[in-house]
Amino acid sequence: MNIFILGGGRAGYHLARLLSEENYDVTVIERDPEHQEYIDQMLNARVLLGDGASALFLQSIDIAGADLFIACTGRDETNLLAATAAKGLGAKQVVARVEKAPYMVESYMYDQLLNIDYILSPDALVAQEISNYALHPGVLISEEFSHGHILLRQVQVAADAPANGQLLSEVLQPDNGALAGVIERQGKVFVPDGTTRIAVGDKVSLLSKRETMSEALSKFQGRVSTIQRVAIMGAGTIGLWIAHALEKKVSEVKLFERESERARLVAGEFQKRNIQVIHRDATSRNSMEQEHLDSFDLFIATTEDDERNILAGVLAREVGVSSVAAVVHHVDFAPLAEKLGINITVTPRSMIAGSVLKIVRQKTVAASATLNEGDAEILEITVHEHSPLKGVMLKNSKGKLPARVLVATVLRDNDTFIPNGNTVIREGDSLILIATTENIHEVRKFFQR
Amino acid sequence: MSTRLEFIEPSQIRIIPSGATKHEALDILVDALCKNPAIQSKELFTRAVHEREAIQTTGLGNGVAVPHVRIEEVTSPTVALGIAPDGLDFQALDNRPVYVIVLFATPRDSGKTYLGLLAKVMVTLREEKTFAALASCRSVKEVTTLLGLD
Questions:
Q1: Reported pTM
Q2: What CATH number does the domain containing A421 carry?
Q3: Which of A144, A180, A234, B59 has the smallest number of Cβ neighbours within 10 A?
Q4: Mutual angle of helices A348-361 and A122-135, in 10-degree steps
Q5: Would you call B66 and A108 a contact, using CB atoms and an 8 Å cutoff?
Q6: CB contact, 8 Å: B46 with chain A?
């Protein structure tokens, strides 16, 4: 698969790294000669110097040969224009990244008007993730598989959770309809088995039938109290998306913005609602105390500046806010922020990479989700007539299924179940597989559509 | 009531039952649309709708979702309208429930004139009163009366 990425900035670089590590043919188009050289040295990707918004430049690099073209420079209009040009010149699938809300909210118009396959907004995805956390406290990731029959939820094991200290086999029996697919413990990701002992702080990815998910979740979560009072720092695109999402859902939102012009503009938008716009820098103990944040349930730091977000998050914890979420642009800062007591960090470029990986995977699998910065992957595949898995009993799957790949669930005739060793895979089955990064490439080879 | 939704085929309107999941709602609307001969392959159309949804939600905010696919197996643009009076968890970008679903199917190489129609629908849905009236319909009859389709 031939993939072109326009823009080697934060998002483009991260994408190029993930995709080139999976041995795709990746070409990065970058305007800045110094940055071009840097990417060239760091990544196993072709890097071209040029202006990707120029149709003639795109023609000169044979963009018609692209299976996928992803425009992710920092400028929305450049991305939309370049994606349209690439599509017109013959690229098979094109994606444009946008930041401005209207382009995203009206994307069903723009993608058809401009002939772009997917318009993606990392800011909207970040906001969705954080507001999801506010509305479902304790749940770090949520995804759906098998047309919504199977849910994926990642939770962090609390000290008072029933599962804490228990063997996995004692917590979840296979016939409960739920299983723990992947665990992240102290930065390491592994696929657990019945003998794994659950520890406090583990990030457990649960797969379950829709009906049994809340029961499974309750075993890994401690007591969770709902979030009613929320403070948001930064009225940028992300802050606004979150404020809109929480409007009417929580009892009080304070939105802090330090730039007066912006604060005034935003205040107009939220008039007469339960959202109070405060023109003030939230990064001081003083302002947090004066605004009574000690009685707040959640503080969300959403500015462009990672250091400010982390610092404000730590301060908010000190002042007494129950939990803290922070937008962290630099992936390396995320573990640090969590060590400092920030409950959830969300990285825009990981969000966009997650979407692009789904598009890439869609050539071979029905659905997918990437966990833990790409350390593990959940894939949904359909067993076709010529699949090597057809007719295989799972305990005899050696050689048919790559090592250390787990078949988590089977969807057959509209019924979903967790298979055991005696399960025989049939044509038409839809399987959810769990793989860690080292064998993902192998899995992909197995399941060409 | 004067709306700009007159072009919606009454046989392609559905009320989404309370408690339905997003995928069930999509299947209901896909079924409704597949009665139209413009959809030549139900299998490919269904797959395309769910695949797009898996990449990114088409619940783009303010209670409206616009699932839309462009595939070769559609001969002319057509639309199904779903009303979920009790709200639907669509994993929308703004995390709010979805009340109105506009499922659009279009040929891969169609002209853009139908986009004018889609835009008119969406502009209409931005009017709070129209949206509220439509979102609270509990029967197809109510919808067609409201939209002047009778």
A1: 0.88
A2: 3.30.70.1450
A3: A144
A4: 100
A5: yes
A6: no
